[in-house]
Amino acid sequence: HRVLPLARVCQLFGPECTKLLLRLRAISAIAGNECRLVEPEEACTAVDANSFSCGAFFAMSNVAIWPVEEDLLVATDFEKTFSDSTLEPVMYISEDSLALLAAAPREAVTSLLEGQ
Prior knowledge:
alpha+beta; four-stranded antiparallel beta sheet; two-stranded antiparallel sheet; 6 strands
């Protein structure tokens, strides 16, 4: 994990997307030196108040975000790759799966095989 200033996340994704990620708990806000987890609504209020400082909170990702195409991001569980009785993780995307996604047609086609 790499901790970033929440303001940097806001610069990258914009305030509305940052608030959505916070509410979905895809990212968590952290308060300063005590590393206190901040509730999503408190962090969203800080983003609304000033998207350039975001209450001086930091952010950490709870998921891995994979850029699949220029307009498609896929979120998977971060690091945990085994199941137990309380969690069935969404596995990371392997290289062969990324290749299949990249090769999939993005527009309607009549055939996926050459010569037909």
